[in-house]
Amino acid sequence: MKNDCLNVCKGIAAFAVVFIHCNFPSPVGGMMNGLARFGVPLFFMVSGYFSYGKGTDTVKRRIWKVFGLFLGANGIYFVWRLLALWGQGSLTLELAAGFFAPKSLLRWGLWNESPFMGHLWFLGALLYCYCLYGIFVRRGIEERVYVLIPLCLGANLLLGEMLSILGKGISFLYVRNFWLTGLPFFIWGHWMHREEQRGRLRLRSGVCLGGILFGACLSMGEMLLSGGADLYLGSILMAGGMFLLALGRPEFGKGSLLAHVGEKAALHIYLWQMMVFDVVEKLAYIRGIHEHMVYQWVMPLAVGMISWILAEALVLGNTVCSTGIERRRGQ
Q: What is the DSSP string of 219-254?
């Protein structure tokens, strides 16, 4: 059954991720960056939620689907990076080969850090989640690994936020990956589905909204205290609160634009936002408006809007192609 409220949350999360990468001027930009950190965790939770009760055949289909997206998105951004280097007049065979240097491939394999564009770590981490989940399903232990949720998230906050507060920060690679971000939120979404089926998640909407608001305030405070991190305790509370709200009010937002965006366009917004950002920034430099305050305020909104329009065009194109294929098969 479709959950309209969850689609609304996905739509909000998609634009939140845009605002992580395209910052408003300080201090609003820093505050928005802190608030928006719930976005990617929510996407992992959605994937885990809809994996509950699925057999190995369904998991395999999802693995291949994500693998196709993983190859396609990384391939497109590889060409995009080459075109950017060519436009700068700095494209060489050595630079192109550098994307596949052993160190880059090791970071890609261990920490999901794509050598072509950083935000594509999500696809690698999601692919790992489904692969490991498939192993859990075959062994019948998918509900025994819930203990990893507090362990992994605790390690994430300790190595990421806490060390930053203590002035001993480490590379984001060690926390923004499958191990400490993707897996625990994926499993948490799975746990949410189990508890929902057992009738144990019956919180009032006001309680959920209060948790979201408290998490938002906490995130901004943690951002100021730590100087910036990839995940905050407030982010966890926001993601969890939004998910619980969606489970309690599944029809909220039905027929709304955000519900449509979350259901149809959120993934495309996430994948292609950085391409849009590059184009907008390049045009701003050409026009000499990059340093103008008005541009700096408008740019994140423009990137979000253009990314959404592009996503809708891709969804429409895919629908037209699918309809054409089905008609040919029917003949």
A: HHHHHHHHS--S--HHHHHHHHHHHHHHHH-TTTTT
